Amino acid sequence: MNTPEKQHQATHELGRVYDSITDSKVLTEFFLATVSRFIPARQSYLFLAARNKTLLLEASAPFVGEVPPDLAVEAQKIFEDGKPRVLKGRMFLPLIARNSVMGIACLERTAGAPVFTPQEIETGFDLASEFSGALKNILLFEENIKMERLAAVGQAMGMVVHEIKNIMQLARFSDEMTRMGIKEKNEKFLTTGLIKMAKTLKEMDGFIWEMLSLTKDYQLEPEKVDLAAILTELQSDLAERAEGYHIKIDFKTDPDFPAVEGDGRSLYRALLNLVKNAFEAFQGKQGACVKIRARVKDDERYELTVEDNASGMSEEVKAKLFEAFFSTKGKRGTGLGLMVVARTAKMHQGSVNVESQPGVGTKFILTLRRFFPRVP
Ligand SMILES: Nc1ncnc2c1ncn2[C@@H]1O[C@H](COP(=O)(O)OP(=O)(O)O)[C@@H](O)[C@H]1O
Ligand SMILES: [Mg+2]
Prior knowledge:
The chain is an alpha+beta fold. The chain contains 9 helices and 12 strands. It has 3 domains: about 140 residues, GAF domain (Beta-Lactamase, 2-Layer Sandwich); about 60 residues; about 150 residues, Heat Shock Protein 90, CATH 3.30.565.10. Strand 9 and strand 10 form a beta hairpin. The site of adenosine-5'-diphosphate has 21 residues, from helix 7 and helix 9. Adenosine-5'-diphosphate binds next to helix 7 and helix 9.
């Protein structure tokens, strides 16, 4: 028998458990199991309405692949009507949350059992409304997560497109120079154009690689790396820009710096990002200098440091440095540079440390592994 106490106990029990469930499937299964404990039914179905208001079977207990066609038709009618009904030994319970019907639960009476009592219908209705509230909350939560993901994708796209536009600008300039060189038979223009184009391609290639390295499946394939050569390459790639900004760049590799293992391109891009950040922090300061060093730390590790005497940074900025999209540069920044640096350190089983003082300068220290054990 279904007493008011039993009914109260059921709803109370449900409310308590619902609070701890965060998955809509688990919640639904739990609801169907509970309802059949309090109302004798041989089969229960749960339908939820799609956007076009058609009911779709969400769950059944015990599991059935197909729903009797007449039951589906009745459920759709009752969904539109929104009131609980008993028809031909089936109890239909509308799932109502925030004044709208989300779906229908249907219980089929056990063969030979007495007809559903008004008390059972009331219990069913109470259980269904408790369930509907909890389900609506979970669905809203899931929807929110989707929206947040979508927003994050949008933000990432915006940053990537912005950076590609910058590179395109370089490409256009190179193209223009080369055309002028051809048209006016001016070898100097032609050479400048082609050199710029090569730089643009290198920039594009590096940027694509950076984005790839941020994807979650990216794996380091360690190979022998000549760090001194990477530093020389960086020095020559940055020379023109440093001169333009009146910044001194000072590269030093320990004279006996040994060969190390790692990903050369990744190390190049990490250093490039650090030096670029230093350049951007000067804002026309006199006596600007960036020091780049490579030195052995111990048998297992080596250090790469990039030190500037630029603006330095506040504790607040320091706390957020490695967050995705964090930038103090407005439209000019992507907020991805230091993420790439952190990723490089992680890939090389190392770490990044920052020392910085406002008005004095900043030092980034990458501590990286010299060798990687071979995977057999
Ligand atoms: N050398 C530095 N000196 C001062 N601030 C820095 C330095 N390097 C990084 N930052 C700060 O860290 C932020 C994040 O850097 P980053 O991830 O490279 O993104 P972005 O350069 O696009 O802003 C910068 O916007 C800047 O505020
Ligand atoms: Mg940067």
